[in-house]
Structure formats: C-alpha cells, structure tokens
Amino acid sequence: MQEKFQLQAIPVNTEHSLSTLVENRSAYTLENCELNVFETRQEAENVALVFKDLVLTSMLRGKKVMHLFGNKGFDYLPGETVIVPPNEEMIIDFPEARLENPTQCIALAIAEEHIQSTIDMLNERYPKVEPQAIWQLDKQMFHLCNNSELADSINRVIRISINDKTREKDILTSLALRELLVRLMQTQARTLIEANYKKMAGSNRFAHIIQYIKESIREKIDVEKLSDKACMSRANFFRKFKEEFGYTPADYILKERIRLSKQYLQNPLNSVTQACYMAGFHNLNYFIRAFKKEVGTTPKAFQSSLLN
Q1: Taking residues 192-207, what's their average pLDDT?
Q2: pTM for this structure?
Q3: Euclidean distance between CA atoms 273 and 267, whole angstroms
Q4: Is residue 41 helix, strand or coil?
Q5: Which residues pair with 26 in a beta bridge?
Q6: Which end of the chain, C or N, has fewer beta carbons within 10 A?
Q7: Which tens digit of pLDDT belongs to each residue from 5-26?
C-alpha cells in the first residue's frame, strides 16, 4: 500500500458559526488562487460542486465518496489529493459525516495564467530528458497519495493563505503556488513511471533506471554508475533526475529500501535485523537512523504499532 502523508489540521468551526451542515465554506481569496475550506456535519448524497478554475482538493478529516468524469465513485480519504479540471462537476457523497465527526477538505482553485506561466518557465529553463516529453499537469492522473514534499507544499499554501497578515501575502502565496505546482508535476511523473516502468523502460531512460533500481534494490547499487545505464553524463543525469522526480537517485534508492523494509516488518516473524538486510541495507545502525528520519519512528516501534 502506498504511504500517504496527511496535511496539518485546520481547526473546525464551532457549531453555532456554521451557515449550513453540508459543505459549509470558508474562503480565502488571493491574487492567483482561492483557498476554500469545506466542512460537512451530516450524512448527504449527490452534492454537486464546480469551480471555473483548475482546483486541487485535499482531504483533512473524514471520508467522502467522489464521483468524477461520469465514473463510479471512489473513497476519498485524508492523505489524498484530487485534481479537478476547470468547470468539471464533482458529485460528492458523505456517508459518515456527523456533528461529532465532521468531514473537512480544502479546495484550492488556481488561476490558469499562473499555472501556464509556471509550466512555460519549467519547459524553457528545465527541459525534460526525453525530447517528446514536456512539463504539464497530467489530468488523467488526478487521484494521488500525498508524499512528504507534496504535503509540505500544500501546507505552506494553506498556512500563508489563512494565517499570514502581511502586505507580502500575495507574493508569498504566488511563490508557494509555484513550488506546489512543481511538486505536483514531479509527483505525477514519478507515479506514472513507477506504475508503468516495465512498459516504458525501452523508450524512457529514467523508466529504465527505475526498473534497474527496483530489480536490484536488495543488492549493492553503485549510484555513480547509474548515469552510464542512462547513457548520460554524470552531472546531467543527477541534475535531471532531481528536476524530474524531486529526489536525488540516492534519496530514491533509500526511500525504496525503507518502503521494502516496512513490508518485511509487517511480518512479526521478521526481526528488525532481518528486515534491514533483506531490504538491501548493509549497516543496522544506519538503517535504524534512516528509518526513524524518514518514518518518524524506529523500525521496532513501527513493527510494534502494527501488532497492537
């Protein structure tokens, strides 16, 4: 199961301040975006919502069932983000919303001009490796699990929009939006290749590298030789990998090994030492430090939490 990073909590409104129990809206309007915080406190079905701009939505608490593009509804939970194109109708069900258990999400509507200027800047200054590839928001890949970088970027926009009272608020928000859009496109690029790296390995050099890393993850990987496998100079490979995916190759390998170690730790018969070496780590103390830094807890505490 893909790990999901939840956003920082936003205090819910007091009951007497609500204008409605279904999708009560608090709006924060800025130069290039509008942040909407929605709360629902009673069960409801077929609630329609439309924005004229592209909107990034993220769940904070509770559960929705989201219907998009005329497709079957899907569960929408904290730690997840959904991208909705302009003028696309969302149909939303709230099967578990209660006064004591509100559903809360954000909807960040972003001006098209700001999105396009960010994409144009990336394509001009940081062109992708493959000649046919360009920076763009992939509207087919609309339902994402938040990674730490994407969650941090969304949190920054929320924090500035709601809490910043300075004259520079619009400037700070615009800069934070650019970072958010870059992180979003990097997340989509990584998610696409990770889901299709076997099919893409013959035509995309980074897909080929991802395939090699995944197939060799339990062995010692010489990061310095990855550029040779990508048929790129060392400097260009490391720079472009970081630009397109948001991680260095070494960071990506580390995250893959920790992800694999978490799978092994789910089996109570595997010790921390066994999970360490089976996931490709060669030093137990380093594994424990790296795991705690990435996950926020030690491997032993993580395994114990699964058993309780």
Answers
A1: 93
A2: 0.89
A3: 13
A4: coil
A5: 37
A6: C
A7: 999 999 998 888 888 999 999 9
- Give 182's Cβ-side CA count (13 Å radius): 23
> How far is C-alpha 282 from the geometric centre of its chain's CA atoms?
29
CATH class for domain 203-248? mainly alpha
The class (CATH top level) of 15-191 is: mainly beta
| Residues 250-307, CATH architecture | Orthogonal Bundle (1.10)
pLDDT digits (tens, 9 = 90+) for 70-87: 999 999 999 999 999 999
**What gap in Å lies between CA 58 and CA 66, rounded to an integer?**
12
> Helix (H, G, I), strand (E, B), or coil: what is residue 47?
strand
> Tell me, what's the pLDDT at 2?
61
Q: CA-to-CA distance for 112 and 91, rounded, in angstroms?
A: 23
What digits encode the pLDDT tens for the residues 32-69? 999 999 999 999 999 999 999 999 999 999 999 999 99
Answer whether 15-191 and 203-248 agree in fold: no
Please report, for the chain, the start and end positions of each structural domain, with discontinuous segments joined by +: 15-191, 203-248, 250-307
Sign of CA dihedral 46, 96, 162, 174: negative
Q: Could you tell me which residues are beta bridge partners of residue 104?
A: 39, 61
Distance between CA 85 and CA 83 in Å, rounded?
7
